[in-house]
Design brief:
7 helices, about 15% strand, nucleotidyltransferase, alpha/beta, Rossmann-like_a/b/a_fold, nucleotide-binding, single chain, 5 strands, RfaE_dom_II, globular, five-stranded parallel beta sheet, ATP-binding, about 150 residues
């Protein structure tokens, strides 16, 4: 789906709604993800996720990632009740997707400073809010993979 298609989708389905946007790899869903996505959804009417493509995850996380391919990650996210829509992006950041979607609220996990969140300039420039949500210690895909491999 092109960014123009994403923009058209949002304008058609989420017109006059408070749209929250977040992004990530969401490689192996865990409790920390679900708590974060539920908190994000509670901030608005609709939650859109920008999902890193397989190629993007590989560039960011290394050759052994993602564990789950983008179709499987997309399917799992789209079937969470907190999630309204998922768009896959190919770049390392969702900047162009955020520009197309123009969310009212942009969120990332608490390990991100607000001024470091990609797209903060777009959202604040449109009068929206950018928030760093609670980060649940002990929940990460990297830690989970290490535990599965017996390294922690």
């Amino acid at each position: 789906m092109s960014y123009e298609d994403a923009k058209d989708y949002v304008n058609k389905h989420f017109k006059d709604k408070k749209v929250v946007f977040t992004n990530g790899c969401f490689d192996i869903l865990h409790r920390g993800h679900l708590m974060y996505l539920n908190e994000a959804r509670a901030l608005g009417d609709e939650l859109i996720i920008g999902l890193n493509s397989d190629a993007s995850v590989k560039r960011l996380k290394g050759d052994d990632r993602p564990v789950n391919n983008e179709d499987d990650r997309l399917y799992m996210l789209e079937n969470l009740k907190a999630v309204s829509k998922v768009f896959i992006f190919e770049e390392d950041t969702p900047y162009d997707l955020i520009k197309a979607v123009e969310p009212n609220i942009l969120v990332k996990g608490g390990d991100w400073a607000v001024d470091q969140i990609v797209g903060h300039d777009i959202v604040t420039g449109n009068g929206g809010k950018v928030l760093s949500l609670n980060f649940e210690d002990g929940y990460s895909t990297t830690n989970l993979i290490s535990r599965i491999q017996g390294r922690s």
